[in-house]
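Researcher: We plan to redesign the surface later, but first we want a full-length starting point. Tokens attached.
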């Protein structure tokens, strides 16, 4: 996952590429474009098979849909997926490795792709790209030894139409690779004088590779003085790695504030704050931010245990720190030597809900969006 990958793209490898989509549900050889029924059948009525008969799926309210089921060993190399923005916090994305009953990845759909507020933000990073208008891409390598399963659960009260493609390789040696894990936690609001837990209780060998936070500010003034802390292996009360401030960890400085412009969004290959949602004086009353930090060139390695948390601090009079009680939703990504790990409880629809004002409430009578392609 470095720029050096470009120097190896010409290397010949004895692997095969496969892809799963609504046009080839099992990724079988020669299995694409054979559908005779699907969400595009009516549009293709004059053309017949092979002409976009099945470009998407409809997931009924309350149901879970299996995006991909892959036997044996392999590695997922790319995921493209899209649905209407009203669904970004009502869908749960999960991944299971090697036949495990517990998911290694369980994250709200939008948060996994750095769009946790239900409003689009362009993300131009190396592992995650979010493009107009809701074209979400993941390039996180997802290796597995004995099978992979990806699912989407629809927690909303309406059916959801989803377009997707999962590309993977088979035939390689993945025995030395860790399993990708992603965990989501939300403090809403954060307890008084208590850090927000990003992950805890992780056991095994691995490396921490990324953080996305959807941060909602519940008070006036600057909110990002808090430090992020990584407790590695035998660390107890005090961490081995301690940051110097929230904007510092996410690669910015001095409040992300360009004089005359205020908070300034940015997106780079490894870190960014691609989203700044400002109050509108009516329904949108708080500032909201989306920030990511990918540890691709600087992974945080641990041998036995890992715990990560972050503080929420502002300023009070007399240049004293002010503990804040903000709305913080974090997604943590790490590779581990095992396919399951201690994880938080599965969030409910109420746990996920974003309150952005009347204009952000979905029209429950709306028709599925048109084919985005």
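Model: Full-length starting sequence:
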């Amino acid at each position: 996952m470095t720029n050096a990958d470009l120097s190896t793209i010409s290397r010949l490898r004895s692997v095969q590429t496969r892809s799963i989509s609504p046009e080839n549900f099992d990724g079988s050889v020669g299995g694409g474009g054979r559908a005779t029924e699907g969400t595009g059948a009516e549009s293709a009525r004059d053309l017949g098979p092979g002409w976009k008969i099945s470009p998407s799926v409809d997931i009924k309210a309350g149901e879970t849909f299996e995006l991909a089921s892959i036997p044996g060993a392999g590695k997922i190399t790319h995921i493209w997926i899209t649905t209407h923005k009203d669904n970004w916090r009502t869908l749960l994305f999960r991944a299971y490795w090697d036949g495990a009953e517990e998911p290694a990845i369980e994250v709200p759909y939008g948060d996994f792709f750095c769009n946790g507020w239900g409003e689009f933000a362009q993300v131009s990073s190396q592992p995650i790209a979010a493009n107009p208008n809701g074209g979400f891409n993941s390039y996180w390598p997802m290796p597995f030894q004995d099978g992979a399963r990806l699912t989407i659960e629809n927690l909303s009260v309406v059916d959801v139409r989803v377009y997707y493609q999962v590309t993977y390789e088979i035939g390689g040696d993945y025995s030395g690779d860790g399993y990708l894990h992603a965990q989501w936690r939300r403090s809403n609001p954060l307890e008084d004088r208590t850090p927000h837990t990003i992950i805890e209780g992780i056991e095994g060998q691995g490396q921490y590779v990324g953080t996305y936070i959807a941060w909602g500010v519940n008070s006036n003034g600057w909110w990002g003085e808090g430090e992020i802390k990584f407790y590695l292996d035998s660390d107890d009360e005090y961490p081995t790695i301690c940051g110097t401030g929230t904007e510092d960890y996410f690669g910015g400085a001095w409040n992300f504030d360009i004089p005359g412009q205020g908070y300034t969004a940015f997106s780079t290959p490894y870190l960014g704050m691609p989203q700044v949602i400002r109050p509108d004086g009516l329904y949108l009353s708080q500032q909201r931010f989306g920030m990511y930090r990918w540890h691709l060139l600087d992974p945080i390695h641990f041998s036995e245990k890992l715990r990560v948390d972050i503080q929420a601090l502002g300023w009070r009079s007399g240049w004293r720190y002010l503990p804040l009680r903000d709305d913080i939703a974090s997604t943590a990504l790490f590779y581990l030597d095992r396919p399951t790990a201690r994880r938080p409880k599965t969030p409910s629809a109420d746990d996920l809900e974003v309150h952005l004002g009347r204009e952000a409430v979905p029209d429950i009578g709306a028709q599925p969006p048109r084919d985005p392609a």
